[in-house]
Every structure is written in C-alpha cells, then in structure tokens.
C-alpha cells in the first residue's frame, strides 16, 4: 500500500536561533531576544513546500507532455487534435458539464453520474458477494478445493465476453452493465479475502479458542479485522477493474453513460470530445482508487502485525 | 485417580504425517497443587510447548488425560488462560480493548458493565499498564505487550495460568523486570502457574518446582527439582544463596551433562 511520505508537522528543529545575541557594546543592558516561536507563516511555508514537492513534479511532466503533444499535432494534416484545438472544439462541454437537452444529449457530468451509479451498484454487490465467498473459501478446505479452480478459470474471462451472455439473460442493457461490473470486480475481492482469511495467524485463532469466542464473535472480532488489509487490496483492484469494465460495456449497451458518450463522439467524428471524456474517465478512476485506499487506511489503522 | 489440583496423567502425544508417526511425548505425568508455580524446562524441540498446549486444550493428547479441579480438559477455555510467547495481542484493538475483550467474554453474564470496566482496569494496573490504555500494540514496547498479555490472561481469572516462554522474546533487563512483576502478582493472587522456559535462572528464581524434560523424540519428565527457597525472593540476595546455586547446578547438569542436545537445532 502506498503512503504519501509526509514530514511530521512538529516544531521545526532548524528554527533558527536569533542572531541578535552578538554583543553590541559591553556596557549595554543585555536585551534577551524574544524567542521566536515557529510562526504560523513558517508553518505555512513548510506546508506549501510539502504540497509543492508532491504536486510540482507531475505538473511539470504534464506541461512537457502537453507541449510535445501540441507540437506534434499542430502540423497540418495531423490525425489527432492538439490540446489547443481540443479546448476550442469542445469548449461547450468543458464549460458546461451540467446541461441536459434530453435523450443522450447531456453534459459530461450526467454521463459520468450514470456510469458511477452503475459502478456503485455493481461494485456493492461484488463487495458483498466477494467477501462472503472469499470467507467461505478461506475458511473451508473443501469449499476451496471445490470452488477455487472454478474461480481461477472464470476470472480470466474478459469483462466484455460476459456482456452478450448477460444481455441474453437479462434482456436489458442496464442490469447487463451492472452484471458485467459485478463479474469483473468480484474475483480479486474473493481471492484476496480468501488469502486474508487463510493467513489469520494461528495465535489469534488460539486466543479466540481460549476465550471460546463463538462463530459470530470470531467472524467480527478476529476474522474481518485480521483479513482487512487483504480484503482492501482486493477492493482496490476491484474498483479499478469495474471502472475499466463500465466504459467498455456502455459503449455496447448505449444509453446515458460515459462509455456511450465516447462511442457516440467517435461516430460523430468528434475526436476532441473523446479526448476530453478520456481525461474525465482517468481522473474519476484515480479518485475512486484513492477513495478506497483512503477508506482502507482508516479502517485498517493499526492492523499491521508487529 | 489423584486429588491434585491439576493433574497430567500418562499423556502421550504423537503426530502422524503421511506414513510416519513421530512420538513427541511419552507417558508424561505431573501433579500440581493449587497455588504452585511450576516451570517446565528442556531443550528446544523437546515437546514442552506441546505439553502446555495439551493442558491448554489447544492440542489433543493421543492418549492420557489432563484433569483440572476434578474436571477433564477437552477443549480450550478461559480457566486455563495462556500467555503466548509472542504476546498475541490483537493489533487492531487498543491495550484496554484487548483486555476488555477477554473480560467481556468471561464475565459478560456475571458482572455489570461498570464492574467489567473496573476489573479490566484493575488487571491493567496489576501489570502497571494503566498509562497506555488507548495505545495499540504496535505503539508499545515488547515488554509492555507481554505485560498486557499477562493482564489479559489474569483478567480471565484462570484456575491455572499457562505461560509459554513469556519472556523469551525480551531483552535481559526487561525480562528481569517482568519476572519480578510476575513474582509479585503470584505472591498477591496465589495463582497456580505452569511456565515453559529454557532459562535456568528464570526457572529457579520463579518456581516452586522445576520439571526437567528429556530430549525428544518421545520426551518424558526426566527429573523434578524442588526449589525450597522462601518467598518473597530477592534476585540480588539469591545470587550467592547456596540453595539457589544448588538448584541451578542441578538443572544445568541435567540439561548439559546428561541430556545434552546432540543434534543442536
């Protein structure tokens, strides 16, 4: 799990000793310098520096890449639009993500919202089913022997390959898309949960046995907290995969959604709109990942076994 | 049928893996009186931890039985609280919560919430850990963790306290400090204690009797050394005490002359 290295915000060690102690004249009354506390401004400067060390390098890289892109695509006859052209062409979409002209002619906000709703639903089902099945497989040797080979085969099926099957089963785009998200993100959750449950240290099990915890107490007080770091690894992989799957699935099922928006833009040769949508997709995917990571940090606080 | 408080009767233990059977313990019998402090000492791999686990109920004996207070031991339970070698605190719970988990489970029906809180606090005070209630195990030192582990075990009000090399992972100074604390708690509460150790000084200092085990496979009790030192015992005063030295050399001779570990692990 990656953590952002952050300097402790304690009083700075290098708070400079005021240089006014130098003797000015021998007879002068020694005025003790007022000890300077690490002023708010100093702390602010430090915070700014910390933020800068995190944000400056990627911003710089981005600036260089955009500049190169601009140069490469500014030539007449370039097949892809340059950044400046994108801003010009898609200005309406950039400045107003909230318009709604009915049908599928909506602002990007509405498309993203529709996609996120599908992901939320499919992913939630995947979390519940995944943790439950993972617990079963991690707990019971027979369940593992019976189910694990099946999981290993099914998890390699690409998300989109499920779509025709789910369309046939549900006869509707909406549940099919949700099913595809579910089936894509459930495997890493199952597998990681199972590994986490299987890796519960024997010591904790012994503690539970000495205390005679019953099944429910064992599940909530030992199993879930102990496996939490593994479970969250699965959840994080799962949210990434489900965001991958939704864009692809929506391209095929149509309706409101960022995937269909991209497909629609392609059919109308609006390459600028596609690129704009991709930027949004990337940013949202990043935010989803961060959200789960943040949640994991909060929940698994102190779970590291030392 | 004996009338000892804790009696280990003709316990055999063998592990079967594949076609081969390894005999770990053979015909181990031991009787412990109430309030007695017993150490079990032996080279590593002699099955002393297995014996403790059998008493704890965490491992089943192949044959033979363990009786505690007239009742057959057939499963783990809080009347035989274990202090594990590596503390085994739950890292996601605070110091207080770790002890509280045990208190709530054992006294959930017999004590009110207020009484349970007081009991949790009392046990943490006993090991002088009341200053770190809200710390998590990762935030306290190894010695402190072990103290919390002891508090958790004591809080179950066990009939017999099982210590599995409780100070093995600690540095010498911390270990001495904890030994003194355990001695004091033992004097105060009069617990029956069964302790696994491989430290001769620790065994002599703390125990009423030292059970010396032969090397495995098929380990048995080789000798039992009485330690007739009066309590309370002072670590410093004992250094030159003839009884202390005699007990010490008895154990050392047993371990390093007659039952030397040939294939050093």
UniProtKB/TrEMBL annotation, chain B:
Membrane topology: Peripheral membrane protein
Major subcellular site: membrane
Keywords: ATP-binding, Cell membrane, Membrane, Nucleotide-binding, Transport
One Pfam family matching this protein: ABC_tran
SMART domains named among the record's database cross-references: AAA
CDD domains named among the record's database cross-references: ABC_NrtD_SsuB_transporters
PROSITE patterns: ABC_TRANSPORTER_1, ABC_TRANSPORTER_2
Name of the protein this chain belongs to: ABC transporter ATP-binding protein
Source species of the chain: Azospirillum oleiclasticum
